[in-house]
Amino acid sequence: MTVTGAGRPTHDSARSQELARGLQRDLAKDLDGEVQFDDYTRQLFARDASMYAITPLGVVFPRHADDVAAAVAAAAAHGVSVVPRGAGTSLAGQTVGPGLVLDLSRHMNRIVELDAGSGTALVEPGVVQDQLNRAASPWGLMFGPDTSTSNRATIGGMIGNNSAGSGSVRHGMTIDHVRELDVVLSDASRIRLDRVDEAERARRATRPTLEGALHRELPEIVRANATAIAEGFPAHWRRACGYRLDRLAREDSFFDLAKFVVGSEGTLAVATSALVDLVPRPSRTVIAVGHFTSVAGAIDATQDALACDPAAVELMDRTILDLSRRKIEYAALGDLLNGEPEALLFVSFSGDDEDELLARLKRLTTLWSRHGHGYHTLRAVTPAQQSSLLKVRKAGLGLLMAASEGTRRPLAFVEDTAVDPVHLGDYTRRFKEVLDRHGMTAGFYGHCSVGCLHIRPFLDLADPADVVKMRGVAVEIKDLVAEYGGVNSSEHGDGLARSEFNREIFGDRLYEAMRQVKKLFDPGNVLNPGKIVDAQPMTENLRDAALPPAGPLRTRLSFEVIGKGAGSGPASADGTGAMRAAADRCMNIGLCRKSGSGTMCPSYMATRKEEDSTRGRAAALVKALSEPDPRAALGDERLHEVLDLCLMCKACKSECPLGVDMATLKSEALSHHHDRHGVPLRSRLFGSIRLLNRLGSATAPLSNLPGRSALLRRLMDRTVGIAPARPLPVFVRHNLSRWFRRRRPAAGHAVTQGTVTYLADSFTTFTEPDIGRAAIRLLEQAGWDVRLESGVCCGRSSLSKGLVDDAKDKARHLADTLSTSTEASSPVVGCEPSCLMTLRDEHLSLLPDDPAVKDIAGRVRQVEELLVEAIDDGRLRPREDSWLAGRTLVYHGHCHQKAEVGTGATVALLSRIPGVSVVELDAGCCGMAGSFGFESEHYDVSMTVGGDRLFPAIEAEPPETVVVATGVSCRQQIFHGTARDAWHPVQLLWEAVTSG
């Protein structure tokens, strides 16, 4: 079988299918882990974070080392290659191939043992770097290599790549921290690789096995090529290229196969566990951030920084700085900067003696001032001062990718070169001259401390001319870096992007020695062939070049709101190409696979399945939208299995650097599924939630009886799929609308601010009316004349169920009502973020050309904003002696609020209550997600999501702590999961204003 293009196999179909069936049958019989050969799973694993795509024959998810050995044996028996894979964040195409993908991240992710005394950890390959660091932290230890992808990069992947990161000037590369590896060889045998003396090597060499051959013949290859090894490797130490024969050659008395296979990209062996060294974790870090008027100026300042013994020296150019300011997740950096720097240089000093660190920081600023480097230096000494700096620095790749327009993307093909830092300034100048000569622009960031800059030129690989240009630049840069004694691959590896050039880089003799190594380890060419040696040209298997034109598809939502409708072909007025382009913005950098921080992606955090990540869903949608009839493909049941666990939290819209808005994509896809299969009863019910809640309120307390009857709850489970374990909302007869109509006008409060419209949402209006009452009373005390809008639904629930036409009608009705019945420019506020944010986001997708929708979207404000202004102006005065004084307020923000506007206004409001201490939880999504947590088949996942971080964080608080949450779903989930009541912020402010 041969593979061309973006992984579209060209082979005899019947023969290929027979091969796949046979292999799948054998794997299912021999493995405990899952075996998946369906088209959608294969598509999900056709890409990594590189510019390449190759559709594999199938994917397996090993549970243990025996599964790995069985998979390798079965693949070899069927003549199929094996592609080991961790997080799939490789930038050079190492983890894509036409054979059998082994996803080692789903199950093989245990920290088997952590020995603080010896400073080692025994881990399975799927352990994530941050996971290991969290486990090691209580003992003051960490894993030395510090990659920017530490929140999703697996240790196995780092071993395959020989990853490094920002701290490599102090801690070196992964190869320097690996003691032992348990591996599966190409013949499916399992052995341990470690460092042995000559006597032990000779003893092992007598074995009549592949292990024996390695210990017998590899030393002969080293001896026979001693001169080539001594002269052929690049001079610069930071190398992630070729096979590390140099490491074997420099230790005459010892033979270390563990270190030798580090960086071999899964072409020599498959690691099933690793014993790695840990290093002391510094207790303090201080950072100097130099501001420069040019990238060249920042690079010139590097030598002064290196003279001060830093832990890291990182460069970031204006391109990435500007992109960070556009994202809520990273915007805080802009508030810290002085002026408009063209480049920043982050210099970190780490250790345990704060005085010494501050002295080094002072020495650096003195040197920079003396030598005229930069125009300002920001000092970040405390963790609070450093958090936004570090977040943006780690997000450099993703932020740069966000500048993509269609298939014109900043590409990784010359992004991993490194030279001695002494030559970095001159080298970078000549690098830029190459780009200028070819008419290319690029983003510059990276590790100045070790001479490595990640320079990613913008190219459109759907354009054949740009493909030719790319290879021409790659050749020039390969030659340029050789002039300086540098390396073509310094931490991202060779993969498909650079392996082609290895013969020229290492010379014929050394390259042939590396080919001998590959043949010795893998005589059948089973393990990840075509990487490091015997590679195809770098221009083969490009993902963008092989996508077919997008088929005709009229979408109900406008995807111009998500991203430019290019990429997959032009986006026409009827939506052709635009939806696929929105999904295809994903460049697989894998931030949606993180855990332990942020919100994206809650379903992946719960299941650890690739298809439950944002990028997995995006890949599935790209596949469906590339079919000849995308409308029919959007009705595919397997596609909707992939989309099913998306909670539509919208975290991907803000946390994904490329802004892949999966919630909107899912709404559109669901609408097409309904076109083909009809609308389920439960979706109709939840889409009519305002009507149901109104009826529930009107008939309370009788309407609350079903929630107390086990028999009725079982009936609801069987008939419409409402989870019997989930408490139902309690309806209140005296709802907000009824209260507002019957109350007496507020007395004693002059109207000084004009009119504000309060949006009576579909939830709290009927189940928690105290929230709306508190908000309205506070607004009136603050000088506002409050108008209540309680007759129209925003359509949020309809959208979540794919009832897009219904949502569009509701959006039009609400926008028209608000536009005609309110004063121009008067604000519209509310207390339920999911409803309020719908007016400023989804309504624009539904009706992008409606002037009323645009008008209202621009007038939406959070009620917290108006109340903060009122407190600051003295129009509202919270009491100093309220019962809240001295309390800690633990606040959990609503996902839609975090995605659209951030939680700053809510935190500011809570902080203005006298005497309180406010703690904002980084606890992700609560897991309720509106109707999601009520649905029987989703209940367990919902509780798993809440139990990941939110429930433990709240349960750790003492009883006197006050729990705060802006979302109705969040409050429901918190009570169900922890038996703690959560307050809305306006309720607490009302308490602070009125109670003593």
DSSP summary, beta strand count: 29
What general form does the structure show? globular
Strands of the biggest beta sheet: in what spatial order? 19-16-18-17-21-22-20
Overall SS class: alpha/beta
Work out the helicity level.
40-55%
Main pleated-sheet profile: 7 strands, antiparallel
Q: How large, in whole angstroms, is the Cα Rg?
A: 30 Å
Average pLDDT confidence is 93
Low-confidence regions: 1-11, 561-574
Oligomer: single chain
- Compute the number of helices: 49
Task: Kindly report how far apart the N and C termini lie.
Answer: 78 Å
Q: How big a fraction of the residues is strand?
A: 5-15%
Relevant terms:
996 residues, alpha/beta, five-stranded antiparallel sheet, disordered N terminus
Q: Would you give an account of this structure?
A:
This protein is an alpha/beta fold and 996 residues long. The chain has 49 helices and 29 strands. The chain has a 7-stranded antiparallel sheet with strand order 19-16-18-17-21-22-20. Strands 7-8-14-10-11 form a 5-stranded antiparallel sheet. A 4-stranded mixed sheet has the order 3-4-6-5, covered by helices on one side. α8 packs antiparallel against α23 (508-521) and α19 (424-437) packs antiparallel against α20 (464-483).
